[in-house]
Each structure stands twice: as C-alpha cells, then as structure tokens.
Design brief:
The chain is an alpha/beta fold. Helix content is 38%, strand content 31%. It has seven helices and eight strands.
Amino acid sequence: MSIDTMNHDQAVSSHAVERYILGELSSNERDAFEGHYFDCSDCFEQIRLGGEFLTRTREVLDPEPEKSWLAATLGDLRRPAPVFASALLLCTIGICGYQQSVISGLRAPQVEVSSFLPGDIKGIPKVITVSRKSRLSLSVDIAPRSDFASYTAQIVTDSGKVKYSLPVDAKESGNSVTVGMPGDALAPGTYKVVVQGVSANGTAVKVGGGTFDLKFSD
C-alpha cells in the first residue's frame, strides 16, 4: 500500500523534524516524512544540524566512544535522548527554523519605497513617509570621475553622526548611487545621504548627496 508523502506545511505543524530525530514518529509518519525531506532542502538541513547536535551531546554524556558520525546518528534515532539534551535539541532546531524563515522572508518580494533626492536645495529636506514594514530606496545623482577607484555612500544624521557607511563599486555606480535599507533601519528624523569619490591614493571628494526627513505612516 502506498503511503502519502508529507508536504512542508504538514511537516512543520507536526514538528516532524524534531520527532524524527528523537525517534518519536510512527512507522507511517516516518515513511511519509522521509518521502518529503529528501526533496526539501529546509527539512534536510535541519535533520543534518539536529543529528550533528545530538551526536556531539552523546559524545559528552556517553563515556563509550562512537565509531562514526553515521553510526552515532543512527544510534541516536533508536534510543531516547536525555530530557535536557532533547530540550536543547528542540531549541537548536527552533533557532534554525527561525533563521530559515527570516532568510525566506528576505528572499520574498517586498514593497519598496523608492525616492530620488534632488540634492540640497536651499537646505530644505525632502519629506519621505514610509511604513516600517516596507523597504526604503534612496537615489542621488553623482558627478563621476575616471580617477575614482570607488565611492562611499554615507547616511549622516542632522547632527553630523555617520549612521551607515557603504562602499560602492565605481564600475557599478554610473551617474547615480542608490542606497536600500529596511524602512525601520532609521529612527524618524532628518538625514543626509553623502556620496564621496575615493581616488587610488585614498583621497575622498564629495560628489553628490541630498537631505531627507524620514517619517513613518505606522
């Protein structure tokens, strides 16, 4: 009789990774999960990390040395782990799962507010209103020169403190530089984007910039 393979949502909701490593899945659940995780990079990676963690824990707790990583892992799947080791394992897998979800979130399409800063016009900052959950993209025109080896883009507070400083490849800049960041990377307030061209001898010259007043809609 064929056994249905779990999908990823089922594996996550049933804590299949943790239960598989601890040997708590039924025969049918194990077969269904194994049919899933060999094709799921997230679950496979969590199995690998969990197995390594459990093996290292056994090496500390068990005075009898294991013959190999594979033998240790297979042995771990056949016998119950100590309570505190199981708890540590669950925490480790939980952290790995959270990291995977964060990475997946960063890779997913996101709303981005793109704004061009026309430069300092009579000292009046451009007002930019964004959601803290969106991304903010700031672009400024620059005056490129062939003798610049690179550029540096800085975000500076109204008091002159440099909040961020980012290197920019001269070959990728063209006639403008764009700085992107999460919407909540800065607190509400007035800032400047300052772009400097850096020559081969390290001399820095301002080649562009603009001022903006950041506000949040939420």
